[in-house]
Amino acid sequence: MTLNVSAQRTGIALTERQRIAWLRLIRSDNVGPATFRDLINHFGTAEAALEALPDLSRRGGSDRTFRIATVADAERELEAAHRFGAVFVGIGEPDYPPALREIDGAPPLIAVKGNIRAATRPSLGIVGSRNASVSGAKFAAMIARDAGAAGYVITSGLARGIDTAAHRASLRTGTIAALAGGLDQPYPPENIGLLQEITSGEGLAISEMPFGWEPRARDFPRRNRLIAGVSLGVTIVEAANRSGSLITARYAADFGRLVFAVPGSPLDPRCHGTNDLLKQGATVTTSSADVLEALAPLTRDDLLTRLDVKEPTIENTRAAPAAPDDGERHRIIEALGPTPVEIDDIIRHTEFSASQVHLVLLELDLAGQLCRHGANLVSLVPTE
């Protein structure tokens, strides 16, 4: 079965001035993807949001100088990307992966290098154990080859074992390597040659991290989130308990993606995680057909088109709503605590407008006083 679809490249390109402002905003202190989105929604443009950052942080309770990435910082990173042969793609631009665009807290900018057409094709994620068995690597390669022949790009994390097998098997048909560090800091070192093969052929490397950023242990879950966000479904081949592959599977389930798990021997620790996924409802996967048949309804022309045209507004020029006064701000903060609560519940409880509540949450977030938990849940940072 081969896909009979073509990528719909829709969107609005950022100007260079906007791209610099976006890069400055996402590289500033305490600004993550969700905060970035809320700032753009509230202030209309990245430039307006940048001007407001120090005052927002102060109102949120911060007593330190707020670090804002400078124009020179952004220009240096753009120049580093250019020298490396990479570009930055914004969430509303035509070359941004359409499935990734749909997730909550999608990265506003990703750095990409390679065949940009791979970004907008339907993707299947394949991840698994770094110390893979011969049979596990062979099975992952089979799934990757068959899915690639059917028209899917294979997305994985460039790790040893299953990831490497999946990438190598799909070099000719297209593969995406999601990195935990900057594009110029691939890990592990022994896969640098593989990454070069990917980016010089039909594949693509992507990252949301700054150039020069060396990956740390806590950065790999963000890479796993990218894999799940880019993909329509994720196949797990050999995953021990508490492995990164299970984090990818959890993200995929949270995003409404299909989760496929390959059963293995109960005596093999590398299969404990995948067998547990099957108990939790993952699709039993013993052949490529199991994956391709389940993905087929998600890759109809009408569904892919609908994915592509649902775009966020990049920027607008409307005036920002008025900030709440001190009494209103106190009531909103009072509604928060260490237990995560839905933002919509805060709005209903306080009876303030959504814009007022979101602005106070932004203030707390930028001051380092707010925890975001996904699924529209927030809480105050616990005090010592």
Structure description:
The chain is an alpha/beta fold. It has helices at 16-26, 33-43, 46-59, 71-84, 98-101, 134-149, 162-169, 192-200, 220-230, 244-254, 272-279, 288-295, 301-309, 326-334, 343-350, 354-366, and strands at residues 87-90, 109-114, 123-128, 153-156, 175-178, 204-207, 233-237, 258-261, 283-284, 341-342, 370-374, 377-380. A nine-stranded mixed β-sheet has the order 1-2-6-5-4-3-7-8-9, with helices on both faces. A three-stranded antiparallel β-sheet has the order 10-12-11. The N and C termini lie far apart (58 Å).
Describe the SSE topology.
Elements: H1 16-26, H2 33-43, H3 46-59, H4 71-84, E1 87-90, H5 98-101, E2 109-114, E3 123-128, H6 134-149, E4 153-156, H7 162-169, E5 175-178, H8 192-200, E6 204-207, H9 220-230, E7 233-237, H10 244-254, E8 258-261, H11 272-279, E9 283-284, H12 288-295, H13 301-309, H14 326-334, E10 341-342, H15 343-350, H16 354-366, E11 370-374, E12 377-380
Parallel strand pairs: 3-4, 3-7, 4-5, 5-6, 7-8, 8-9
Antiparallel strand pairs: 1-2, 2-6, 10-12, 11-12
Helix pairs in contact: 1-3, 1-4, 2-16, 3-16, 6-7, 9-10
Helix content: 40-55%
Please give the CATH class of the largest domain: Alpha Beta
Number of folding domains? 3
Please trace the helix and strand order, writing H or E for each element: HHHHEHEEHEHEHEHEHEHEHHHEHHEE
Low-confidence stretches: 301-313
What structural class do the secondary elements suggest?
alpha/beta
- Morphology call: globular
**What is the CATH fold-level name of the largest domain?**
Rossmann fold
> How is the largest sheet built, in terms of strand order?
1-2-6-5-4-3-7-8-9
Q: Work out the number of β strands.
A: 12
Rg over C-alpha atoms, rounded to the nearest angstrom: 21 Å
Question: What is the average of the pLDDT values?
Answer: 91
Q: Report the CATH architecture of the largest domain.
A: 3-Layer(aba) Sandwich
Ends distance: 58 Å
| Sheet with most strands | 9 strands, mixed
What percent of residues are in strands?
5-15%
Tally the helices: what do you get?
16
